[in-house]
Design brief:
A hairpin with a 2-residue loop joins strand 1 (128-132) and strand 2 (135-139). The protein has a two-stranded antiparallel sheet with strand order 1-2. It has two domains: 2-99; 128-262, Alpha Horseshoe (Serine Threonine Protein Phosphatase 5, Tetratricopeptide repeat). The protein has 264 residues and is mainly α. 81% of the residues lie in helices and 4% in strands. It is built from nine helices and two strands.
Length: 264
């Protein structure tokens, strides 16, 4: 605006000079007038050139400022987009962490439940201290269940099933702590089924295996009964005498004395 005002004043001054020059034509010759005009033109051109340079520079600065502003806006927009992307990624990671925490908690719970369940299952197979017929030993839980089941079958009077059960039990558990007692009940089941031959074999096995077993005297007494029923009086007498000699203070020995007195 200042440059434009200056230019207008310059042009007005030129016009005045021209007018003055016309009024005073007699003072200047043609050559001086031409030089004055040329000089004036040069000044006007210089003014115009300065104005053009100034306008160009202003335009360039405006354009540069506009470009820098646009670039700055783009940079800010990019930063905003990056910030939003970062927030979204953080939210996603936070969600994943929360899910992982829930999964870990669930896994730990299942592991604990599995551990408890495993411990319970293992306890089912751990040997248990038991006492049977005055003998204490460690027994596999499965053996205990099977022995108790066979004994319950015998006590119900199902001697055939009890006999089969005890035979299977002894075959599958040859080293069991229940062996002596199982032989005794097996022999009794066979004797009840009138299978004296098998009963005698198992009673003798019991006596050989555990001569101090609490049922050993009863086993000898039943052997003698089988021998009597088999008409082998001599063998029965010998068995009863051995019973009285080996287990003299037992109820079985007292019963043996009575039967021995009745043998012919």
């Amino acid at each position: 605006m200042a440059m434009r005002s200056f230019s207008m004043r310059g042009i007005a001054a030129v016009c005045l000079l021209v007018a003055a020059g016309s009024a005073s034509a007699g003072l200047f010759d043609d050559e001086e007038a031409r030089r004055a005009i040329l000089d004036l033109r040069q000044r006007i051109d210089a003014v115009k050139q300065d104005k053009g340079d100034t306008d160009r520079k202003i335009s360039e600065e405006v354009q540069r400022a506009s470009e820098e502003s646009a670039q700055l806006r783009r940079g800010i927009l990019d930063l905003q987009n990056q910030l939003e992307a970062t927030r979204a990624e953080l939210a996603k990671l936070r969600g994943q962490n929360e899910q992982l925490a829930r999964d870990l908690s669930e896994y730990q719970r299942k592991q604990k439940d599995a551990s408890v369940s495993l411990d319970e299952r293992l306890r089912r197979f751990e040997p248990l201290p038991v006492t049977v017929d005055g003998k204490e030993f460690l027994a596999d839980p499965a053996e205990k269940r099977e022995y108790d089941s066979n004994l319950a079958t015998f006590r119900k009077g199902d001697f055939a099933a009890a006999s089969n059960g005890f035979v299977d039990f002894l075959n599958r558990n040859p080293q069991t702590g229940y062996r002596a007692s199982a032989l005794f009940w097996l022999g009794n089941a066979q004797y009840a089924n009138k299978d004296c031959k098998s009963a005698v074999v198992n009673f003798k096995s019991l006596i050989a295996l555990a001569p101090t077993h609490m049922h050993a005297p009863e086993a000898m007494l039943t052997i003698a009964n089988c021998q009597v029923e088999g008409k082998d009086t001599r063998a029965a007498r010998r068995t009863l005498e051995d019973l009285i000699s080996i287990y003299p203070t037992t109820d079985a020995a007292n019963a043996a004395k009575d039967r021995l007195g009745r043998l012919k």
